[in-house]
Amino acid sequence: MERRKIRKWCRDGFLVFLGAMAVFTVLSRSLDSLTVPQVGTSYGKMGNVNYEIKGDGKFLASGITYLNPEEGLKVQSVGKTAGQKVEAGEVLFAYQLEGIQKKKEELALSIEKMRLELNQSEVRSKQIPGISEETLAIQSLDAAKRALDFGYQDLEELRRESGEKLAKLKRDYNQNMTQSEEEMEEETRRQYRTAERAYDAAVAKKESAVKKAEREVTDCEEKLDRLEDEGASDEEILKARKALDRANEDLEEVREEQSLNVEEAKAALNSAEEDYGDVSAGRRTAAEALKSSYESSVEAVEAQIKAGEKSVRNLEEALSQAELAVSNARARDAVTAAENQKEQTASGLDRQVKQLDITKAEEQLKALEALEAASGEVTAPVSGVVTELAVVPGKTVTGDELVAIGDGRLKFEGTVEKKLGELITAGTKINLQYGESRRTYEAVVDSVDFLSEEEQAHFTASVQEDTGVLGATAAFSLNLTSQQYTQVIPIAGLRQESDGYYILVVKPQKTILGEELTAEKIPVELLEKSSTQAAVQGAFSNTDQLIVSSSRIIEAGDRVRISGE
């Protein structure tokens, strides 16, 4: 009995426990559902990113014909105003005839003046033939070469003659030293005659050498005078003056040298004369006289050789200077030729400019003549709408006035962001709305222009005939589609942090209480996005539930529950 009661009590207690556990589990689940955030989900898909672009633009003329009013003419009357239609040949405005006639006269005078200036420029550009510096320098070089060749010949002849003279002097000296008193007397006489002839020869040679040096000075003076008369360059004149200075120096050297030779010959003559008059001096004085005479003669011959060698060295130096002068002259001629060519080119271009000015002025004159023949009236070259007509009756045209006629069908011009403009191509259709009716019209894009200085793109579109009003503003809209992507998600599912983009997807997790849902973070690479969609690439599939909304802020690892479940 007691055991039965105990078993019943235990059974009842266990049932109560199970019931309590069930109640608590339900309560726990209910409380958990209230604390876990709710999320809205969506899925990625293969497809395109769609754009809806809106903006404003203007209707413009497809073609604009501009007229350039004649500057300086006074306007007589105006037949049209901006916004009016005009037919080809209709009068737009008219000039005063008096102003046209006056400008014609001024223009004709200006043309004549320009022609005279052109002729003057052509005359100035013609070069007068002349002798180049190189040619003159080469002439001087050739003269220096010839002079040096003659100098070498003279030196060689002098050395040969001097060698013979020295050999003879030595033979005579040795022979005379052994002569008898009678022979010495005869030798004294012979020496006197020889000294006399030597003196005469020295005097004659001095005169010849001095005359030759004087002729060289005269030639240099004549060359200098010729260069000055011909208007040669300063460098050539300076070179000629230096040559003259050298010739004068050579003349003085010749005079001194030959005077010394004459004095020596005179001294030898005087000595021979004394010896001839005083034979009684005997062998003692004769030997001294012979030796002195021999040594003096040798010194004189050696002095002549040294003078010849010095003359050759001067000629060699003159040749080197002449060669350098040729090189310098060639360089100066090259510079001069380059400068002349530059001047010729500049002069030719200046004449071309003058000729173009003349041609332009002649065309302007013809236009004025035609305008005068038309009684000063300016007509519309094409049919269309006058977009600009800035001339004013009674006012003189300044050149800033604009006259323009819009012709043909209108076009529409709009602006979008440069990134969006890259999606627009020729042939893209757009919708236009303008006017009070806000009726929708279709247009087709003709071209897209990207301005590098701006983050914008301009496009022009063709509109249907009789669509739009010139200068009116219209709203445009168009839908664009990107290339196809593997994973395109709603823009609400794309999240961003400092190091890039990511998404949150719902993933089930098994727990002791059963299966729970958590938010899992997946990094993605953003490929393209619009205001509603984004193309991404990441480690997820298009079957994963993408979190696009939540009842409160959630992070990776948070428990979530899907709305409606």
Brief characterization of the structure:
With 565 residues, this protein is of the alpha+beta class. Among the domains are: 1-35; 137-349, Up-down Bundle (Ferritin); 406-483, Efflux pump adaptor protein, beta barrel domain (Elongation Factor Tu (Ef-tu), domain 3, Beta Barrel).
CATH class of the domain at 137-349: Mainly Alpha
For the report, how would you describe the main beta sheet?
6 strands, antiparallel, barrel
Order of helices and strands: HEEEEEHHHHHEEEHEEEEEEEEEE
The CATH topology of the domain at 137-349 is Ferritin
Q: Return the CATH architecture of the domain at 137-349.
A: Up-down Bundle
Separation of termini? 53 Å
Low-confidence stretches: none
- The amount of beta strand, in percent, is 25-35%
What's the arrangement of strands in the largest beta sheet? 2-8-11-10-9-12
Count the beta strands.
18
Task: Please give the count of helices.
Answer: 7
Percent helix? 40-55%
Radius of gyration, in Å, reads 60 Å
Average pLDDT reading: 80
Counting helices, strands and paired strands, the structural category is alpha+beta
- Overall geometry comes to elongated
Overall description:
With 565 residues, the chain is α+β, with helices and mostly antiparallel strands. 53% of the residues lie in helices and 27% in strands. Among the domains are: 1-35; 137-349, Ferritin; 406-483, Beta Barrel (Elongation Factor Tu (Ef-tu), domain 3). The protein is built from seven helices and 18 strands. The longest helix has 92 residues, at 282-373. The two termini are 53 Å apart.
